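It would be a great kindness if you could assist me with a short task in structural biology. The matter concerns a single protein, recorded as an amino acid sequence and a row of backbone structure tokens. Could you please explain, in whatever detail you think fit, how the structure tokens follow from the sequence? Thank you for your consideration; the sequence and its tokens are set out here:
___
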Amino acid sequence: MALSTLNLSLQFGDIPYAAHHRAALPRHKVARWIRHSLAADGEITVRIVDAEEGQRLNREFRKKDYATNVLTFAYNDDEDLDAPTQADIVLCTDVLLREASEQHIPLPQHAAHLVVHGVLHAQGYDHEEDAEATEMEELETTILARLGLPDPYAGE
């Protein structure tokens, strides 16, 4: 399977324990997770933020006043199907750390799942309806398996 071409910008905001997060989320791993998730070429920015920035972005763009684990901002024109996938994906370290701890999984494993989830959103997948959610979860599970990672929905 040939992987898509990726132009990746990986950014770390003003976050506590930045060195820890840089070590847990190195560029080559994040790029690998994204490339396995893309159906076509992509131009993706992944920004790692703290709870304050995550909450501000969620409030400003989704009208929800809390920090969430992942936000996706997709910029593609639905009419140009040949254009590279263009998106910003924002991961909130505070939420990622809490969820990884609660699920008893390593931070990189949880981050991989959320990056895959965000990239699928950038390509038009959603989970508002049950059928959409099932399709998206199955695709996430397939992609994560190709990456050698376990099913994040097992045991739910």
Summary: The CA atoms of residues 11 and 47 lie 5 Å apart. Residues 130-146 form the longest helix (17 residues).
